[in-house]
Amino acid sequence: MIAALEYAIANFAATAELRASSVSLDFVPPPAWYDMETDVAHSAMASRVLLRSETPPPTFVSNTVIQYFTLGDIDPIRLSTIDTTLDIQALPGATVVDHTVGRNGYLCADYGGYVADGLNLHVRRSQLAYLTSTGQSALAIFTATAPVPVWETIESEIREMEDLWLTKISTPTSGDS
After folding, report:
1. pLDDT tens for residues 94-116?
2. What is the DSSP string of 26-75?
3. Which of 35, 47, 92, 159 has the fewest CB atoms within 10 Å, measured from its CB?
């Protein structure tokens, strides 16, 4: 579930289109992370997927999913006006731990936990609404998921990738926090 997309479609007749990542949007992840094959990422409705290499191979692979959507000729969605925590709340056994808003309401970050296949997982999802260089409204989403026991160890890597992701996106609609 992506509450911001549903909001844009229902209220502004937006046409959400998933876009592939591009050289200008890609960043070099920390050493333990590698890219999933592009075709596989796209078939999973993602622009880019990064997986964390771990030995021995874990039951659940820590991952970061990046999605870039264009929404057409509408104003960027002020994410602070909708409940982006619904994205996490929709997951099984979910608990939202934190919700922050920045960049004049165009950036939201949600953090929480949920259960999948008997595993306790942490999830962090950041969303940024902005205008593309061609004037299209866009929504970029960064979602990191990892098992609870691993999260503390890799949280700094996730935050580093999130910062790199944010710096790669042109955000003319958003000012400083």
Report:
1. 999 999 999 999 999 999 999 99
2. --PPPTTEEEPPHHHHHHTT-SEEEEE--SSPPSS--EEEEEEEEEESSP
3. 92
